[in-house]
Fold this protein.
Amino acid sequence: MRRVLTVLAALALPISLAGTPAVAASHSTHATAAVKHATAVDQLKHPAALVAQGPDDVCDFTDNRPTLHLGSSGAVVQQAQCYLNQAIGAGLDEDGDFGRITQSATRDFQQCAGIVVDGRIGAQTWSFLSFWANAPDAPFC
């Protein structure tokens, strides 16, 4: 109860000292903020020019991110292999075959990144892989 009263007193003191000009200034500040917000929203809805969203991805086989494991194949595996090569210099052939060598490189990456080491590429590993592979200082480890 004491804390509530202290907070209320702390809030009431500046208001009572400032008088009506503070209220008018506060109202003016809110009105200005509302106008700025409306202007910003309008600019987002109607941009003068389109702006690229983020850096280009270093690997461009696919945008799909399914869970990969031993035996998986296709463009998504090529994407993962490319990321592993960029992120840790794995030296993998980007052949689209998730075999023992890709699984081992995945475990090496997971160990290096400090995430769950299971040799599978799920959501967490995809997230770290794409971030690390596209980082300017790659490869790591």
About this structure: Residues 1-8, 50-54 have pLDDT under 50 and may be disordered. Residues 7 and 32 are 28 Å apart (CA to CA).
